[in-house]
Design brief:
41% of the residues lie in helices and 23% in strands. With 87 residues, it is α+β, with helices and mostly antiparallel strands.
């Protein structure tokens, strides 16, 4: 199973961003994903966000698909998809 690369776009004043970062960092520590963090408060993050068409945070790009994590349900759904099935 290949480790999926997840790009996470965040901003310091976004509370949902902190939640998404904590959850995805946990998956990264477990070796389940490769996490790339883009902070929209700094120029390189803004540039990548503009290039990717990111208009809100938190947003992730998974396998080329941009997904906004506007709700806890959206985040939980993403985590469920990324977690390998229990064997």
């Amino acid at each position: 199973r290949m480790t999926p690369r997840i790009e996470l776009f965040t901003h310091p004043v976004c509370s949902g961003c902190r939640e998404a970062l904590l959850a995805l960092s946990e998956l990264e520590r477990a070796g389940e994903i490769e996490l790339v963090l883009w902070r929209l408060a700094i120029p390189s993050g803004r540039a990548r966000g503009a290039e990717a068409g990111v208009t809100s945070v938190p947003t992730v790009i998974v396998a080329g698909e941009t997904r906004e994590l506007a709700t806890r349900q959206a985040l939980e759904g993403l985590i469920a998809e990324l977690r390998p099935p229990a064997s």
